[in-house]
Amino acid sequence: MLEEIWIRHRALFQKITLSIVHDRSVVEDILQDTYTNLLRRRRTFETEEEAFNYLRRAVINTSIDYIRSVRRRQSRMTSFENWAPTADRSRSADPEQRLLRKEQDLRHRNLINEVQKALYTLTDEQRQAIELIFRRSSEKPLKEICKEHGIPYSTLRSRMLAGVDRLRQHLRGMNQGVKVEKEAETHGVPRN
Questions:
Q1: Beta carbons of 14 and 27 less than 8 angstroms apart
Q2: Upper half-sphere CA count for residue 75 (Cβ side, 13 Å)
Q3: CB–CB of 16/59 below 8 Å?
Q4: SS in 3 state form for the chain?
Q5: What is the mean pLDDT of residues 168-180?
Q6: What is the largest CA-CA distance in the chain?
Q7: Which residues of 140-166 are buried (b: 16+ CB within 10 A; e: fewer)?
Q8: To the nearest 10°, the Cα dihedral for 158, 161, 163, 169?
Q9: Are 60 and 16 in contact (CB under 8 A)?
């Protein structure tokens, strides 16, 4: 049953993998790793739906594991390059590095979008406090800015801290694993 489902839904599994790793050159390797790991486990399933969901989840998890391993390698390489004074920095042409840079840029853009969305969940006072504190020019002391706006320093600080806490809560909620499921759904993957 597992092999039939794998063959029937292979194109879908390729799309899922590609949507996570964003690199066509590694999709087949990831799928092969997933399938061989599944064969070793020899798990049985009562229904086709249960088997399909298991395969889908295994593909997602293996893809995420791949991304994490690439990040770890990148982190180690960056640490080594920063440590070694004569390290060759011409490695930027490496496909892995480009993949990581592209992924980091995408994550950065997504984070900026999420922060912008989260800013609209704040009260006007909290948003104003955050803007006054974080967008001020370094030349003007904060207490002077408070006087100009007629807001006591301690009030501005309290509003800013409350706003930052609310932003943190929003961003933590975003990182609770919902992201991977939503991304998979947008690429036509059926829900459990």
A1: yes
A2: 6
A3: yes
A4: CHHHHHHHCHHHHHHHHHHHHCCHHHHHHHHHHHHHHHHHHCCCCCCHHHHHHHHHHHHHHHHHHHHHHHHHHHHHHHHHHHHCCCCCCHHHHCHHHHHHHHHHHHHHHHHHHHHHHHHCCCCHHHHHHHHHHHCCCCCCCHHHHHHHHCCCHHHHHHHHHHHHHHHHHHHHHHCCCHHHHHHHHHCCCCCC
A5: 67
A6: 72
A7: eeeeebbeeeebeeeebeebbebbbeb
A8: -140
A9: yes
Other residues' Cβ atoms within 10 Å of the Cβ of residue 172: 9
Residue with tokens 């011409």: 90
86 residue type, one letter: T
The gap from C-alpha 174 to its chain's centroid, in whole angstroms, comes to: 9
Count CA atoms within 13 Å of residue 56 on its CB side: 21
The answer to whether the CB of 125 falls within 8 A of the CB of 155 is no
The neighbour count for residue 78, using CB atoms within 10 Å, is 13
Per the listing, tokens 């408070």 go with 146
Greater pLDDT, 115 or 66: 66
Q: Please, what is the average pLDDT of the chain?
A: 80
Q: What pTM does this model have?
A: 0.42
Tell whether the torsion through CA atoms of 68, 74, 176 and 10 is positive or negative. Answer: negative
Q: Which of 114, 41, 103, 43 is nearest to 68 (CA)?
A: 103
